[in-house]
Design brief:
It contains eleven helices and twelve strands. The chain is an alpha/beta fold and 350 residues long.
Length: 350
């Protein structure tokens, strides 16, 4: 039985379906975490007696639209009217006009709530369960609309309440908010606004929407508007890409240290992605769901041999970390990658 997964492995690109670089080393850990869990299950005969699990992982490049397209690969084979004799591997997968369909019993993913909503609408048509370890939007709790969606993290309302408690604790009474247009950001902001109105002691001086597609100039205008409103505290209900654009705009305008950024989990979960902006993000506060490290997985991940792994993204991560290549014909200026390094030797490994 195969389990499908849709994860944001590469960076988003506005000019092509996918960016050239991995988002960060953590996304490769997500892939290997699924492989690690499946291996543990397969080795324990008391869990699924007589059943072996496999996996199919697809990259959505941190784009909700790409997530939707990738989810179509998990349409059940019966829905495209294939015949068993037409399937090259006993109907575990099927290629039709260069489009590969994978026979899966459920799907893990994806990270963004908006993307999870999109693929949930597709998967429910085929009664395929979907589990997201990341998506927090309360909208996904509507079982009538998303009957096959489940998550392993708390919904947004808890972190919104925590952010409000944080603001009250520091007695901040005049704030601004920036939120992503769409389900995740808008819904969190609306709940936050309701809670603020109930308190009656806090004023939202500015509320601005952003999108991943906004231009650099638009983000600069957003930050300039925050500065002009004379706010000190800015609450961000935004994903990684928008957070980075906001921080970059603040730096380009010479407003380092001007604001206290209060970030949702969209900021905290990607805190390692803001290299080059450390001076802007210094002093910020962000929230993240509590999770417990798994030492067995860390040992497994750090023991992977880059020369033997079938995971192409692990090799890509290794090449980026140690400035080497596995394809000397394509990248002749880089030294050949070896297994002599350790992941702990790289400052990019977290």
């Amino acid at each position: 039985l195969n389990i499908g997964a849709i994860l944001p492995i590469h960076q988003h690109s506005n000019t092509s379906p996918c960016g050239d670089k991995l988002r960060e080393s953590g996304v490769v850990q997500y892939v290997e975490a699924i492989a690690f869990a499946i291996n543990q299950i397969n080795q324990d005969q008391t869990l699924l007696d007589g059943i072996k699990l496999g996996m199919v992982v697809l990259d959505d490049c941190d784009s909700a639209e790409t997530s939707l397209g990738q989810s179509l690969h998990f349409m059940p084979l019966q829905s495209i009217q294939t015949k068993k004799e037409d399937c090259p591997t006993g109907c575990t997968d099927y290629k039709d006009d260069e489009y590969m369909f994978y026979d899966v019993v459920g799907v893990i993913g994806t990270e963004g709530s908006d993307a999870s909503m999109m693929i949930a609408n597709v998967l429910k048509l085929f009664q395929l369960p979907q589990i997201s370890p990341f998506s927090t939007s309360d909208l996904l709790s509507e079982k009538k609309k998303y009957p096959y969606f489940m998550r392993t993290v708390p919904p947004d309302r808890f972190q919104v309440e925590a952010m409000l408690h944080l603001i009250l604790h520091f007695n901040w009474t005049y704030i601004a908010t920036v939120y992503t247009e769409g389900g995740y950001g808008e819904e969190a902001f609306e709940l936050f606004q309701v809670l603020i109105e109930q308190e009656k002691s806090i004023c939202i001086g500015k509320a601005i929407t952003v999108t991943p597609e906004d231009s650099v100039a638009r983000y600069r205008r957003t930050v300039q508007a925050l500065y002009d409103s004379k706010v000190l505290v800015v609450v961000l209900f935004t994903d990684q890409e928008e957070v980075r654009a906001i921080l970059s705009a603040a730096k380009s305008l010479g407003l380092v240290g001007q604001f206290v950024w209060i970030g949702s989990d969209g900021m905290a979960i990607n805190i390692d992605d803001f290299d080059g902006l450390e001076d802007v993000i210094w002093g910020s506060l962000s929230l993240l769901s509590y999770s417990v490290p798994v030492p067995e997985f860390q040992n497994y991940f750090e023991s992977i041999n880059p020369l033997k792994t079938p995971n192409p993204w692990f090799k890509e991560m290794w090449g980026e970390m140690f400035k080497c290549t596995f394809e000397p014909d394509r990248e002749p200026d880089l030294p050949l990658c070896t297994n002599k390094h350790k992941l702990s030797d790289s400052p990019d490994y977290t």
